[in-house]
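Reproducibility note. Readers wishing to regenerate the assembly model reported in the main text can use the exact inputs given here. Chain order matters: entities are listed in the order in which they were concatenated for prediction.
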Amino acid sequence: MVKSKICLREYVKEGCIFEIEDTDKNTLLKNMALKLKELGFIGDDKGVESVYQKLVEREKLGSTGIIKYIAIPHCKTDAINTEMVILVGYSKKGIDFQSHDGKPVHIVFGVFTKKSNVTLHLGALAAISRLISKHSIFSRIEEFLSKEKLWEIIEECEYEI
Amino acid sequence: MVEKKLVLKNKLGLHARAAAKLVQLAEQFKSDIKIVKDNVEADGKSILGVLLLAAPVGSELIFRVDGEDEQEAISAIEQLIEDKFGEEE
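Running the prediction on these inputs yields the following structure tokens for the assembly.
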């Protein structure tokens, strides 16, 4: 079987790591969609609204706060102009994400993939899981709440699927 | 121990929601549950482990279930996969 390699740094572009000021989940989801436009991955407000709605709809099916202190909100959308882009937000205060364990979320990986690319989407989830377990992020979350630290671990994260 | 090969039928494969459902189900059983795909083994009760498999539709997953409720566990897992994790396609 041919393996393909996912390098997270290829999808976490300049400006994609940011500090979260919001404390409300839906405001954060909206701001992530706006950030994609600000960074040039979404062309217009219609795209922003569509991505935001998809993120909200996905959360309704069950919170993506599936790992202690960490959430992976995501959607497949053709509103983006690239195969995949990943936003990484960190919050010192924590956000109520209606997580599975009820704990506040401090790091959010927003994964946005083109509709057709299921393999890439699964690969991103796997690479992020690898990143989280390799560094036991959930057991020392405070150490990772900075742009520099997050970039340091993301830059070197490669995972073969 | 029981071992069973199951093939993913839902279009999206073991994506986040499906993985979370599988883990939630696995956690209800006392048995140890391992999932093997292409020689990579994951703990069926760990979301990080299950997501690491990056399993698309058509993947063959080998479930190794060991413990007092292994039969019930494997039946329930098989049912979930047959039901496509409750997804439409």
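We highlight two features of this model. The first helix of chain B runs from residue 16 to 26. The two ends of chain B are 32 Å apart (CA to CA).
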